[in-house]
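Dear colleagues,

As part of the handover before I leave the project, I'm documenting each prediction I ran so the next person doesn't have to rerun anything. This entry is a single chain, and its sequence is reproduced below.
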Amino acid sequence: MTESIYDLTLRSIYISSTAAALSFILALIIALKMLDSSVKTRSIVIGVFEALVGVPTTVVGLLMYILLYPRGPLGVLRLLYTPIAIIIGESLVALPIAFISIFRHLQNARDNVRELILALGLPRKNERSLLLRETAPVLISSYLTSFSRAIGELGVALIAGGGIEGYTNVLTTAIALQTSIGNYEYAIQIGCVLIAITMLIIIPLRMLGERVYGA
């Protein structure tokens, strides 16, 4: 039995959008914390996240497998080969790029926000809320970048999710499975859907960037 592209697409969007939301929230918390840290600490943390951007998703998937394996440290949770395992793994995959994107936007906008607070005579405690409001469009683009990273990865979905039809099978694992059994036509159709979803993300992302920066 072969799953319909419609079911694969809905499942992929649900898993990847949830993973992107988790990575976005965590990245935002870390980025806000780093704004008040020392230059040395900030440089170390940014360097670590920049290095993690290039880590293959198969390595993250292997890490998830070791942690969630029945005899592993978190095996008692029985999350291996479940959508939750993929969500956690994809959130780890998207976290570095989400943090780098969010931190740079917040850091660039902070000086302008402080000048605005002084000009308007607002209390300093309003800095965070005003900073988030002023950078809202680019923060949305950061979330979309995280989503794009999550939905296009294969390593975590295959190793920690297992590609179980009707349960953990997503677009990327379906492409791998259909290719392995020689069903190239169906694999190409799924690939086209994945590309279409990615394009629908990139276009509004660019529009947001042009709106903010006037590029």
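The chain has a mean pLDDT of 90. Residues 83-120 form the longest helix (38 residues).

All the best with the project,
I.
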